[in-house]
Amino acid sequence: MGVKKHILITGGAGFIGSHLADHLLAHGYSVRALDNLSPQVHGPDAKRPDYLNPDVELIIGDVRNPEAVRKALDGIDAVYHFAAVVGVGQSMYDIARYTDVNNLGTAVLLEALTEHPVERLVVASSMSLYGEGLYLAPDGSICSGVTRRLEQLKAEKWEVYNAQGEVLVPVPTPETKTPCIESVYALSKYDQEQMCLMIGRAYGIPTVALRFFNVFGTRQALSNPYTGVLAIFASRLLNNHPPLIFEDGLQRRDFVSVLDIARACRLAIESPDAPGHVINIGSGNHYTIREVAERMATALGKTTLVPEIAGKYRVGDIRHCFADITLARNVLHYEPSVTLETGITELAGWLQEQEAVDKVNIARDEMALRGLVV
Length: 374
Fold this sequence. Notes:
Number of helices: 13
Largest sheet: 7 strands, parallel
Number of domains: 1
Mean pLDDT: 92
Shape: globular
Strand order of the largest sheet: 3-2-1-4-5-9-14
Helix content: 25-40%
Radius of gyration: 20 Å
Structural class: alpha/beta
CATH architecture: 3-Layer(aba) Sandwich
């Protein structure tokens, strides 16, 4: 690779950031992380996570703090912008904080980058900004921008229908689908990616936006009830509670290993064709939420804990969305390598050594109190 490149990861002490750090270090990069060690993710102690590679230089600071950001950028060649608060449900009532951290934090970073341009900027975006994925009508036509009406959800009609009342069939969602923003979180992620691409173009900073689908793996915050669904299921199961599933559990998602995400992120700074692109990063497969809950229970030896099907809808949720990864294959030469089965087995092994505080009911009650669970 020649001269060792110095990489900054905002949010680098978190779930995805720490795995990316491991991957980059293994490929000869030098890594610095800027992270505020948020209590919701890291617990109340705000200490360096044990899992964070000792070769990572950790700067404890907030991405909204211009001084901390300027310090973190000193001597840096490329930046991964991962710092964000995550979770669709929480974003629908913790509106100011989500907007402050995700939008303002990105703005502060970009202002600093206008004074300290880097060779590559990679921003973590999200599949949530698509809203519903792409659908196929019975006549073979493609349907984009479809939504579900509140009346049908109250009647527990969970699928997506066209104007003729016909059920639409979900198909892989490409980057060309027009965003359909259904939550404050999705809006903030769209803002993050578009601001980065815009400022990247204006200041000659080669920028790539990666739209992550449902990422899972070790190190996910098990006591955060707004994190990834597999970690939430694991938290319930480790406390001998059944996984809680909204709607009927047949909604489909693309689950991608954090190890595949880390490799895709490295390819995004190494690929000469990546700048200027928005790229889906998923597994290219899809599974129902109910199936994933059952697989997690089996892996943890908790098969007697049958998923609890709530039959309720959370405002901001969508029915089906899974990735078309053709662009990632063509531009990044990315190919997912970790199957759901292998990934869940590895996750289960790590989970046996973890403690998790199950806060799912607290989160559900908070949303119900605000009228966000129908």
